[in-house]
Amino acid sequence: MRLKISLLKEPRHQELVSCVGWTTAEELYSCSDDHQIVKWNLLTSETSQIVKLPDDIYPIDLHWFPKSLGIKKQTQAESFVLTSSDGKFHLISKLGRVEKSVEAHCGAVLAGRWNYEGTALVTVGEDGQIKIWSKTGMLRSTLAQQGTPVYSVAWGPDSEKVLYTAGKQLIIKPLQPNAKVLQWKAHDGIILKVDWNSVNDLILSAGEDCKYKVWDSYGRPLYSSQPHEHPITSVAWAPDGELFAVGSFHTLRLCDKTGWSYALEKPNTGSIFNIAWSVDGTQIAGACGNGHVVFGHVVEQRWEWKNFQVTLTKRRTMQVRNVLNDAVDILEFRDRVIKASLNCAHLVVSTSLQCYVFSTKNWNTPLIFDLKEGTVSLILQAERHFLLVDGGGIYLYSYEGRFISSPKFPGMRTDILNAQTVSLSNDTIAIKDKADEKIIFLFEASTGKPLGDGKHLSHKIEILEIALDQKGLTNDRKIAFIDKNRDLYITSVKRFGKEEQIIKLGTMVHTVAWCDTCNILCGLQDTRFTVWYYPNTVYVDRDILPKTLSERDASEFSKNPHIMSFVGNQVTIRRADGSLVHISISPYPAILHEYVGSSKWEDAVRLCRFVKEQTMWACLAAMAIANRDMITAEIAYAAIGEIDKVQYINSIKDLPSKESKMAHILLFSGNIQEAEIILLQAGLVYQAIQININLYNWERALELAVKYKTHVDTVLAYRQKFLETFGKQETNERYLQYAEGLTDVWCNQTVVQRIISTWFYCD
């Protein structure tokens, strides 16, 4: 990936350009110390003066009123705020008319920013004050005051916090009074620029120490650049949070969100004082010290899937290369390419007006349909369909171009969704809520309606990343997620009335991915690369989970690696320095999944005997129990030395009724309530009571005996024998109540006979 730079031969402005801002993806406004506001049309390459400001107004910062938020359209999208050196900010219409000028600070107003909703404006100045204004320019509050100039400011993603500079320090101050303020030393020189992205929640800072840095929202350092030759004068996040741009003297750099650099350009611009990204995130504009406005278009993006590599060579041109036979196809588009995704044997490309769907079998005849809104911010693909996210909503389409559904939920903000907060499978869409980050909304893909009984998935702390498994039946669909503590959990997405178990799979997990061909999960866990060959083991037999996973040292991936894809048995990992590392995992577990999915149990056993790995036998044991195949389960458990479980399985096989067998299999998996329900529905009341006695669940055993008016004396006898064994006296009031009148229950011959005769065969 690189920037294709374009620069006029002669500068359009006579003095340094202080700020720039995009109205659309093809139109830009620039402000300069020559007092001109100039409009640039990139389609026609024309420039025109919008207005000449009074000679005493030197513009410093410009920010357009936000156009849209989620589904709501704003009416005031045709204006911008301009801060200036005379201590005022000016609300100016698109036509150049100054609607209002407000005395804001003593000394220059160094920065002004609208919040994401467009309901408030924050300004900072040389007087060290941070002020919040209404959208009409009325002062709401002075948020903070300090003794040094504040050079830059940014809103938090929820518009509830403000980030600003204080010399070498960065400060995050909530709008609520008395809320905790976060402050830390960020640079060794004065900080000149900051930016805070709403999608990834990461912070950028640039300073006179010639470095740029990336921070999380708690002030923890994620990346620090090497010192440049000159101070870093500008930084800006791309709207989707995947890239950022850095400007310095004769320097423009394109970087990944983790900090490493894609491209370094050296245009003849002087210092770049301000950088603005276009709405669609495909190009940047820089305000230059020598009067130029520099434009950079992001090209040479690459997408890879199996043996295909797709490269964006020009704004409207893609090159497809098949590495198996070196065949090359050129794809031409009518409009510039904004987003693309290559997966599941399809290439999906969104341009500013249309969506193209190519099959990897035929690159010549794409399926084309018009988009409702041009700026697609995210494309996700599953085997049967793909998801488009734009400013207006979330849309699911089939690969034939047929619209399927559009899920919605209260307070949905599509502008902050990314691949970590949205997940797609063949039958389910999962979306993490931004308003309450402990909640995941689950939707049916075919209808867009909430899944199951309509309840969302709720966790006890904030969730960072979600991922749906890709294969198997809808009823078995699982979702894995990482929470704020970096713990990995798994749970079922089907929720009907009863609360599904959320089970922890691992700790200190940084990133996860599901395999696209079978339900194998991989993740980077602390200093290890871990593969869970059969994550469903946690629902079947948690004791053997450690035997079903594979671990290897991950120190070679350095700090903060990220899993890019998991295709077949190949995992691609992006290291912190930007390099890609490919890891191959064993192909045998995937074959085992395939055999079990087709109920080929003999082939599965044969495969395990051929491979001779404990991991394979442990996976087969769990799969067999999950599918109620006791013969295979017995073989697999014997192979991994779980003799006690082999004996229990043998005892299950000898049970007379189908319901008894099913109940004891559930009991084996730890599903006590479900086992009890099956026995009670089949009328096997004594067995239901007996399993509670065997588990020392005395309260429930007595409750069932009393409810069904049978075997109360049996329960009392077992309880008395239990207490005698440990030399204890009865203290439970219910047991004392029912034991009245029964002297030595255990010695009653009829009770003993009944216990023997009804051990398994009663009722």
UniProtKB/TrEMBL annotation:
GO CC annotation: axoneme; centrosome; intraciliary transport particle B
Intervals holding WD repeats: 102-134, 184-216
Organism encoding this protein: Heterocephalus glaber
Known role: Component of the intraflagellar transport (IFT) complex B, which is essential for the development and maintenance of motile and sensory cilia.
Keyword S-adenosyl-L-methionine: no
PANTHER family, per the entry: INTRAFLAGELLAR TRANSPORT PROTEIN 80 HOMOLOG (PTHR24098:SF11), OUTER SEGMENT 5 (PTHR24098)
One Pfam family in the UniProt entry: WD40
InterPro entries for this protein: Beta-prop_IFT80_2nd, TPR_IFT80_172_dom, WD40/YVTN_repeat-like_dom_sf, WD40_repeat_dom_sf, WD40_rpt
Domain of life: Eukaryota
Name of the protein: Intraflagellar transport protein 80 homolog
Assembly, per entry: Component of the IFT complex B, at least composed of IFT20, IFT22, IFT25, IFT27, IFT46, IFT52, TRAF3IP1/IFT54, IFT57, IFT74, IFT80, IFT81, and IFT88. Interacts with IFT88. Interacts with IFT57 and IFT70B.
Positions of the IFT80 second beta-propeller domain: 300-588
Record localization: Cytoplasm, Cytoskeleton, Cilium axoneme; Cytoplasm, Cytoskeleton, Cilium basal body
Annotated IFT80/172/WDR35 TPR domain residues: 616-743
Swiss-Prot/TrEMBL GO biological process terms: cilium assembly
Keywords of this entry: Cell projection, Cilium, Cytoplasm, Cytoskeleton, Repeat, WD repeat
